[in-house]
Design brief:
Elements (H helix, E strand, L loop, with lengths): L3 H8 L5 E4 L1 H16 L4 E5 L6 H8 L4 E4 L2 H9 L7 E3 L6 H10 L3 E4 L2 H14 L3 E8 L21 E2 L3 H10 L3 E7 L9 H20 L6 E3 L19 H11 L7 E6 L1 H4 L3 E12 L4 E5 L8 H5 L5 E3 L26 E7 L8 E9 L6 E4 L20 E4 L3
Parallel strand pairs: 1-17, 2-3, 2-10, 3-4, 4-5, 5-6, 6-7, 6-8, 8-9, 9-10, 12-14
Antiparallel strand pairs: 1-11, 11-12, 11-16, 13-16, 14-15
The structure holds pyridoxal-5'-phosphate.
Pyridoxal-5'-phosphate binds next to β10 and α10.
C-alpha cells in the first residue's frame, strides 16, 4: 500500500520508474541479520538480484558478504563497499578475464562449477604466483519444487559438478599447486517456499561433507546458496520473508563441525518486496473479447512475467486515492476511495512490439482510464537488473522513499 502522499508524489513524476521503499528494505535486512546471527550463519547478498548502487550500499552496511556471478559483479560488490574477504564468485562460464580480475582483487572464494574450470583457475593463479581459494559447486540432484525455469540443482541443469564426477574433482584438487580448497557450495534454485526442500538439501550436504572428509579434505565452508522465496501474492500483508524458519531448518538439519562456517547467498528474499514498478496507463483499448490496459512500462522494464511466467500483484493506485467530493464519506463514516468504482477485467500489457509483452491476463481492476498510475508490486528482485534497451527505450528511472 502506498500512502496518499506517496501517490501524489508519483503523480508529478515521469513514468515508468522503479520505486524503492528503503525503510522496508532496511527492516528486511535487519530481520535477516537477527535471524542468521542467532546461529552464527554468514549471509552473502546475491548481487544479481539487484545491483542498483543505492540498494547495494544499503545492504553492505548490514555487514553481509556478496555473491557475484560475473567479473563486473565482483567489481560492483567491492566498489559498493563489500569487503573483498566476503566476496564469492560463482558462475558456470567464468572467462579468463573475469578469473584474472578476481585473482587480482583477492576475493574470498571462487565457487567452481566444473573440473575444467578448476584446472584453468589453477593455471591462471600459477601464472600470477597466487593461490586461489576455491569451493566446489555440487549439483546435489535435489528438486527445488519451484518453476522449472528457475530450478538449478537437478542433473539436467547446467550448474555445478555432478556427484558422479566428484572423484575427478578430488584428483584435480590433489594435483593442483595453486588452489586452496575451502569447501562445498550448492544453489538449487530460486523462489523456494517449501522448507522441506532445504531439509533435503541439508541431508545431501551432510553426505557430501562426509565424502570429502573421508578423502582427507578439510571443509571449512558449507555454502548452501540462496533461493528463499517471497510471497508475490500478498505484498502488503506478508512483505518480510520468514527468515527465522528458514535458518532454523539449516540449524536443525545441517551437521556443522566446530571449525566450519555455514554460508548463505540470499538475493530475492532480501530485495524483492522493497520495490514496485510504477507506470501510467497510456490507452485503454476495448476489444470484442478483451479489454487491454496499455501501460508505458513493458518487458523492457520488467521481464519476469514474460521470461518465466512470474506473477506480480498489479494495483491501480490512482483508484486508491480518497475521492475529493462531498460524497467522500460512505454510510459507515469511512473515507470512500475511487476503488468503489466498477471492477473490470483487463489484459495488462506494455508498449513493446512483441505479443509476449503482457504482464498478466484477466486482471481484475477498478475501471481504469488514461493517466492512472499502475503499480506492479514486488519488483525489487530480478527487475531493474534485467532492464533492456530493446525498441530503443529510455532507461527506466529509480526513485527512493527517502529522497
Ligand atoms: C542467483 C543465485 C543466488 C541467489 O538466488 P535467490 O533465489 O535470489 O536467493 C545465490 N547463489 C547463486 C550461485 C546464484 O546464482
Amino acid at each position: 500500500m502506498f500512502s496518499p502522499a506517496t501517490i501524489n508524489r508519483f503523480q508529478n513524476l515521469e513514468t515508468p520508474f522503479y520505486y524503492y521503499d528503503l525503510n522496508l528494505l532496511k527492516q528486511t535486512l535487519e530481520a535477516c541479520r537477527t535471524a542468521s546471527a542467532k546461529y552464527n550463519f554468514h549471509v552473502h547478498y546475491a548481487m544479481k538480484a539487484n545491483f542498483n548502487p543505492k540498494v547495494v550500499s544499503t545492504i553492505q552496511a548490514y555487514g553481509f558478504g556478496a555473491d557475484s556471478v560475473s567479473g563486473n559483479e565482483v567489481r560492483a560488490a567491492i566498489e559498493g563497499g563489500f569487503s573483498k574477504d566476503k566476496v564469492v564468485f560463482a558462475g558456470v562460464g567464468k572467462s579468463d578475464k573475469e578469473i584474472n580480475y578476481a585473482l587480482e582483487a583477492d576475493i574470498f572464494c571462487f565457487n567452481v562449477e566444473s573440473v575444467q574450470e578448476l584446472a584453468i583457475i589453477n593455471d591462471l593463479a600459477k601464472t600470477k604466483g597466487k593461490t586461489a581459494r576455491v569451493a566446489i559447486r555440487i549439483n546435489p540432484n535435489v528438486d527445488a519444487n519451484t518453476h522449472h525455469f528457475i530450478t538449478t540443482g537437478l542433473e539436467e541443469n547446467k550448474f555445478g559438478v555432478d556427484i558422479w564426477q566428484l572423484p575427478n574433482v578430488a584428483d584435480a584438487l590433489h594435483a593442483s599447486t595453486n588452489l586452496e580448497f575451502m569447501g562445498i557450495h550448492f544453489h538449487i534454485g530460486s523462489q523456494i517456499t517449501d522448507m522441506e526442500v532445504f531439509k533435503n538439501l541439508c541431508v545431501k550436504v551432510n553426505e557430501l561433507d562426509k565424502w570429502f572428509e573421508e578423502r582427507g579434505f578439510t571443509i571449512k565452508v558449507l555454502n548452501v546458496g540462496g533461493g528463499l522465496g517471497v510471497d508475490y501474492y500478498n505484498p502488503d500483508t506478508n512483505n518480510i520473508p520468514d527468515f527465522e524458519s528458514y535458518f532454523k531448518v539449516f540449524n536443525d538439519h545441517l551437521i556443522v563441525k566446530p571449525n566450519q562456517e555455514v554460508h548463505f547467498e540470499l538475493g530475492r528474499a532480501l530485495v524483492a518486496h522493497s520495490a514496485s514498478l510504477i507506470s501510467r496507463v497510456l490507452y485503454v483499448k476495448n476489444g470484442l473479447k478483451k479489454n487491454f490496459l496499455i501501460l508505458d512500462a513493458g518487458m523492457t522494464e520488467l521481464i519476469r512475467p514474460m521470461l518465466y511466467q512470474a506473477y506480480h500483484q498489479i494495483d491501480n493506485i490512482s483508484s486508491q486515492l480518497p475521492v475529493m467530493s462531498n460524497e467522500s464519506v460512505n454510510n459507515n463514516g469511512e473515507l470512500k476511495t475511487q476503488n468503489s468504482k466498477l471492477m473490470t477485467k483487463y489484459d495488462v500489457v506494455g508498449p513493446i512490439c512483441e505479443s509476449t509483452d503482457c504482464f498478466r491476463k484477466d486482471v481484475l481492476l477498478p475501471e481504469s482510464v488514461r493517466g492512472n498510475l499502475i503499480a506492479i508490486r514486488t519488483a525489487g528482485a530480478y527487475g531493474e537488473v534485467m532492464v533492456s534497451g530493446y525498441n530503443l527505450r529510455d532507461r527506466v528511472q529509480s526513485v527512493y522513499s527517502e529522497e
